[in-house]
Amino acid sequence: MAKPQYQSMNTRLHVGRRDFLKTTSIVGAGLVLGTPTLMAQDAAQKSAPEKPRTNIDEIAAIPRTETSLPGPFPGKVVQITDEKAMVDDKPQAEVVSRMFEAGLNRLTGKTATESFDMLLSKDDVIGIKVNPVGAGLISTRLELVDAIIAWLEANGVVRGNIIIWDRFDSMLTDAGFTADRYPGIGLEGLQTMDESAAAGESEDDSRWLDADGNHVSAGLFDPEVSYWADVEAPKDKPYLNQHVFNGKDSYFGKLLTQKLTKIINVPVFKNTGNGISIATKNLGYGAICNTGRLHRPLFFDVCTEVLAFPCIRDKLVLNVVDGLRGQYDGGPMPSAEFTYTYNTLFFATDPFALDMVCHDLMVEKRKSMGIKVNEHPMFTEYLKYGQKLGLGVVGKDEIQHVQVQG
Description:
Structural class: alpha/beta
Strand content: 15-25%
Oligomer: single chain
Mean pLDDT: 90
Number of strands: 14
Low-confidence stretches: 1-31, 40-46
Distance between the termini: 56 Å
Shape: globular
Largest sheet: 10 strands, mixed
Number of domains: 1
């Protein structure tokens, strides 16, 4: 059987794609999430490669709205910790719910209802962007999503106007986001992927290619809204299976461009090499297709430039980081060896300030665990780039980091 050609997972991780697919419940995570190692190698050279052109100037020129990032609380990050949140490695729903309400209160200075009225309306179609990678280990916890949904329903949002989403439908299911668990709530993956083909176990393309040779998920992406980068994608079928399109355009899901009116971002607290995979990356790589081509030349910049598009910039109203469990090494793929109980949630309307705070905390954690940390500025330059684009506030003297111990 011919082996698939495309591999974006760094071979230095000492795990092949097929082995990874077979031994984890996160099909293709290493392939579609990528790692920053190759980019770091390039940056370490005496003359770093020139950044490819993108359409960011055109996008940045689009007029802002009153709901545009960084939202009503630029530079403010609230950290809520309660040692009772996890018991025997299981989230305690009542404690998580109290932490959620406390976080809202400290972020907005208002009650849960008043916070809702500030950020949302009962008529909004609200997308909850989870991170299902590492199901049961480091994925977004159902109990936190339950608390968010309860808050929305208490303020008049009908269940049909709440959609839990991610890029891959199978990953949502693996992480427990199912119709049985969430009756009446929308569950949408921007695309499907033939898992057996991705694992190199099948040469049958009929499950992911239609009769015209197009990916079956092609119609779920908006041909009018794309992140263009002057980087060609691989042309082989394994890449197309995972990324829907090849070429120089990464299209946004129609869910974001045509359906959702507001977004709540619920990432997890984990690293990606010497960087992080938290608020900006959860959307930067979760909202578009054809991302594999971007890993090496634009790995972190994607996290900034994708968030500059109005379908995210003007709709993202709240970020809640699930740090009930954290992962300090081995990311963005799950690694039980490096996970730990953290009992913490973070809140912000400003995802760039949030990621700057979380990056610094991640560096501290990695050092405390004996990890040799590369503190090269490239691992936070994309956050400063976000401030330059008016998407967030990341200056050390400008961030207000509020810490609350439950």
